[in-house]
Design a protein that fits this description.
With about 500 residues, the protein is an all-alpha fold. Helices cover about 55% and strands about 5% of the residues. It has 21 helices and four strands. It has helices at about 20-25, 45-55, 55-60, 80-100, 100-110, 115-125, 135-145, 155-165, 180-185, 235-240, 255-275, 280-295, 305-320, 325-340, 350-370, 390-410, 410-435, 445-460, 465-480, 485-495, 505, and strands at about 215, 220-225, 375, 385-390. The strands form two sheets. Strands 1-2 form a two-stranded antiparallel sheet. A two-stranded antiparallel sheet has the order 3-4.
Length: about 500
């Protein structure tokens, strides 16, 4: 593994292989020409404009990032603001890397790095997230596999790819957005199917790429994370065909930059949210970090520092290619100093001084992490050609640990999420029963009817005839529920269970 960095130190020989086929990168899924006057000349800017104009993008304003703001009065990030921040960070990374001529030449040999492609992919990467964030993703996957009999289940990244290639109708063709190959490939954070493609499949590897290992609790189900359902495999292959220098399990350079930007935004901005609303408490965070610093590997049980030591051991055992004991200790010290003893030392009271402290923390950390991005000529299987330097890699791990330990593991959040899981299970069951029991096309929600017809045509091309209708109904229910906002999901369940008496308002969600 060679770290090229950025600047004069990057002057090393690029790997063998032809540079990008620029015509192939710019090719669309179908040969349909543009209709109307485009607002941009670059095909990648056209892609970006189509994504922003999509109703699936607008819907993200009502979808949970971590906690749902609906009805709570909380001012927290949603999937729309998160996507905008990922686009901002991704563009900054791309522009920084391509500013150096030697690094830019290497990136060109690896398939190319265009800031417009990264921005478009960042804006599209969360289009498929269902109501209630990652909790909704887990529930829909389980219901899809166990109740609806869908071998692919549900995955937010695969749903995003399905939206831009199949479901959305804002491109000039009959389905999807007709995005360029480069942008479609950049959306593929996990460039494989749940099972079968590519061969060999990462889920069977002794050391799989990040996200490619077996689904926990269901080792025969395929990879835990993946970016294309069986119905979109042709689009995955076509989008990746322009990137011959990239291995079958590797992200394209632009996908790697988008993925890094997602990690950076998640690590910083979710901490901001829970500092603002008073959930992230200084005492607990400081005790955990100091507890580990004082006892190190000797800490155990439930004592402060034990959870952080478990993280350190996981990093050492799972990511030995990047783990460094001194860098981990330095990351803990930096996070303790700047977060626990810095930002969190004063509670957020809404004052201008408090707002300034949050803004300065965010800007400082974003600049530090963006500045730590490096290009690798020969990355290990759990990395990509674009990755964080050792110091920043450990810092992101510790920042994400704080969020997971002191927000996601809270009992009050868990109880709230159990209610959200009940909403999704009720919706899936009610809609699936409706499709099975009512043969009247006019009495079904029009969009649900259309999604069944779409999926029926897709599965007819490769599934046994006896299974087509069952698979089509299951995929249509998942597509339908995943396209709702948090508020729509709750309102629709009220309609379908008879709890709403407002026929012409609540039922409009159908």
């Amino acid at each position: 593994m060679t770290d090229l960095g950025v600047g004069p130190a990057a002057a090393q020989e690029a790997p063998e292989g032809a540079g990008p086929d620029h015509a192939a990168r710019a090719a669309r899924r179908s040969p349909v020409s543009e209709t109307g006057a485009a607002l941009a000349r670059s095909p990648f800017r056209v892609d970006r404009d189509r994504i922003v104009a999509s109703p699936f993008f607008a819907r993200l304003a009502g979808v949970t990032q971590v906690v749902s703001p609906t009805g709570s009065g909380l001012l927290v990030h949603n999937r729309l603001t998160h996507s905008l921040q990922v686009a901002q960070v991704g563009r900054a990374i791309a522009e920084r890397l391509t500013a150096d001529a030697t690094t830019a030449a290497l990136l060109d040999r690896l398939g190319g790095l265009d800031a417009d492609v990264v921005e478009a992919a960042a804006l599209a990467h969360d289009l498929g997230h269902p109501p209630f964030g990652h909790l909704g993703e887990q529930v829909l996957d389980r219901l899809g596999r166990e109740r609806l009999g869908l071998p692919d289940g549900f995955e937010g990244n695969a749903q995003s790819f399905r939206i831009v290639t199949t479901i959305d109708l804002h491109g000039p063709g009959g389905t999807g957005l007709d995005l360029t190959a480069a942008v479609r490939a950049a959306v593929l954070k996990y460039p494989w199917a749940r099972r079968g493609h590519p061969d060999p499949h990462p889920s069977a590897a002794a050391l799989p790429p990040r996200g490619g290992g077996p689904l926990p609790g269901a080792p025969d189900a395929g990879s835990a994370k993946f970016s294309a359902y069986s119905t979109e495999l042709d689009d995955l292959r076509a989008g990746r065909s322009a990137f011959g220098a990239i291995g079958p399990w590797q992200q394209t350079v632009e996908a790697a930059v988008m993925d890094l930007a997602d990690d950076i935004a998640y690590a910083i901005h979710d901490l901001e949210d829970f500092h603002r609303v008073g959930v992230l408490q200084q005492a607990g965070v400081a005790a955990e970090l100091r507890g580990w610093q004082q006892a190190g590997s000797a800490v155990g049980g439930d004592r402060p520092g034990a959870a952080l030591e478990r993280l350190r051991r996981r990093l050492r055992n799972k990511d030995g290619w990047a783990y460094d004991a001194e860098a981990f200790a330095a990351a803990v010290e930096r996070v303790r100093t700047e977060l626990a003893d810095g930002l969190l030392a004063s509670s957020f009271d809404g004052s201008m001084a408090a707002e300034r402290a949050v803004a300065e923390f965010s800007a400082r950390w974003t600049a530090r992490l963006v500045g730590g991005v490096r290009v690798l000529t020969d990355p290990p299987v759990r990395s990509a050609h674009v990755a964080l330097a050792t110091e920043q890699w450990h810092e992101v791990a510790v920042l994400k640990f704080v969020h997971h330990r002191f927000v996601l593991q809270r009992a009050d959040l868990a109880s709230h999420q159990r209610g959200q899981a009940t909403v999704l299970a009720g919706l899936v069951g009610a809609l699936h029963d409706w499709l099975a029991e009512d043969d009247s096309e006019t009495r079904k929600p029009p969009r649900l009817h259309d999604l069944v017809a779409l999926a029926r045509g897709e599965f007819a091309a490769f599934a046994p005839a006896a299974d087509v209708e069952r698979l089509a109904r299951g995929r249509a229910v998942v597509d339908y529920v995943a396209s709702l906002t948090d508020g729509q999901a709750t309102a629709l369940l009220d309609v379908l269970t008879g709890r709403s008496a407002r026929l012409w308002t609540d039922a409009a969600v159908l």
